[in-house]
User: Which sequence fits this backbone?
């Protein structure tokens, strides 16, 4: 990955929707790529979504997209992850939210209610 900014984080529901050929997710990815920016794929969201993926080729296409950035959690951030996990109730969603905060962007999700416990609804883009 180069120094291009990350414009949006895909959570597990968005990753899964992409593998099911969601136009909504595809359009966001295309817009990000057209801006010469990246979209983030938290590794925990990839792992969670892979459990339900029927089309592994589409998942590989997403991960290998030139604008994709696979994101890991900085071990120093474990306490922040724990707090967010306690709020949203899923580790993958917590990692997506933490990645969005760290990168100053939003989480693209098909499950906005998952983030409902956040003040102001959090940095969420529902599709």
Assistant:
């Amino acid at each position: 990955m180069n120094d291009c900014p990350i414009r949006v984080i895909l959570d597990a529901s968005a990753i899964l929707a992409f593998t099911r050929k969601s136009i909504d997710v595809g359009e966001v990815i295309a817009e990000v790529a057209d801006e010469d920016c990246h979209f983030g794929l938290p590794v925990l969201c990839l792992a969670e979504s892979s459990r339900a993926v029927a089309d592994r080729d589409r998942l590989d296409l997403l991960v290998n997209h030139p604008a994709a950035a696979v994101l890991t959690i900085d071990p120093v951030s474990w306490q922040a992850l724990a707090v967010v996990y306690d709020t949203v109730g899923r580790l993958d969603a917590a990692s997506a939210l933490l990645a969005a905060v760290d990168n100053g962007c939003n989480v693209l999700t098909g499950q906005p209610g998952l983030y409902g416990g956040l003040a102001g609804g959090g940095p969420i883009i529902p599709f």
User: Anything to note?
Assistant: Residues 76 and 82 are 12 Å apart (CA to CA). Residues 6-126 form a domain with the Rossmann fold fold (CATH 3.40.50.1010). The chain has one domain: 6-126. The mean pLDDT is 95.
